[in-house]
Amino acid sequence: MSDQAILVTGAAGFIGFHVARRLLAEGHKVVGLDNLNSYYDPALKQARLDILRADSRFSFVQTDLADRASMSELFEKNRFTRVLHLAAQAGVRYSIDHPHAYADANLAGFLNVLEGCRHHGCGHLIYASSSSVYGANTKLPFSVDDRTDHPVSLYAATKKANELMAHSYSHLYSLPTTGLRFFTVYGPWGRPDMAIFLFTKAIVEGTPIKLFNHGKMQRDFTYVDDVAHGILRLIDRVPGSTEGKGGGALARIYNIGNNRPEDLMHVVAVLEKELGRAAVKQMLPMQPGDVLATYADIDDLTRDVGFRPQTSIEDGIRAFVAWYRDHYRI
Fold first, then answer.
1. Catalytic residue at 155?
2. pLDDT of residue 110
3. Looking at the predicted structure, is the pLDDT value of residue 131 above 70?
4. In this structure, are residues 11 and 49 in contact, taking their beta carbons and an 8 Å threshold?
């Protein structure tokens, strides 16, 4: 790869931060973009950013994906050959009450990224999709060959739309794109709205943890270092026109998961053990937009780039709890 900077959108976000840090450690120049919104505690985003800014090869741009003029200017000025688009309005539950935030960031914002890549010579766009595109599918494990046209949340619908938008740009403009369906990513510097973070905070504070469907759920929890490792392996694996089933489009989609679903109650038990105290459990019914189980078929990613998750849920939670204690001085 040339010494041209790589664009990482959502660089102050959870996955974006880990990917940017890994790229810097490998000697790459990184331009990080983020709007530092208040969807969750901006202080956590700022703390991640402070770590990245300590490296002279990192430069930061604070702007909104939906700001067409500023996005166009960013791409024109830098002419990125590689773009890692990890910014999005995240969260299934939030999308039920704040739909316009998803249209702005995930649809208009994604279009601005595609246009920037199309007009300014990007050689490969890797973008974040989500396991939520599988919606109400019941066949496990979820395969990229499964149909994904029954989303159960607006968030999932916007991520499916991203895949379709990327495919059309690959087809029309020969823009190589790789979409990644992330499965419940967790680990140090994680998002406060995600289960493991929420549960840890509640157990520490002695407040109830909410267990939907009475705790009878499974998630393919994927450790963030495994995810970052997988993304870096894909940067220079540019999709060719003979790949995929997309009528010659230079477009690929992969699952990026742990390939092993965990019972939610087991996750709670591991957290209780690491924190040395019992959780106060509030058993609740299933809620809108949620699914019973997620489980990633990662055969394609293993075959193409040798992706093999290394981190057990026990080791991952241990690392997260150690970070949480340190960061919040507990």
1. yes
2. 98
3. yes
4. yes
Residue pointed to by tokens 């599918």: 137
Read off the pLDDT of residues 287-296 as tens digits, 9 standing for 90 and up. 877 788 999 9
Nearest to 133 by CA among 108, 158, 115, 112: 158
Give me the catalytic one of 94, 155, 254, 295.
155
Tell me which amino acid residue 220 is: D
49-90 pLDDT, tens digit per residue, is 999 999 999 999 999 999 999 999 999 999 999 999 999 998
Burial class (CB within 10 angstroms; exposed 0-12, middle 13-18, buried 19+) of 288: exposed
176-199 tens-digit pLDDT: 999 999 999 999 999 999 999 999
- Strand 218-219 and strand 262-263: pairing? antiparallel
Angle at 317 (CA atoms; ends 207, 42), nearest 5 degrees: 65
Strands across the sheet containing 177-182? 58-62, 30-34, 6-9, 82-85, 124-130, 177-182, 251-256
The residue with tokens 């490792």 is: 229
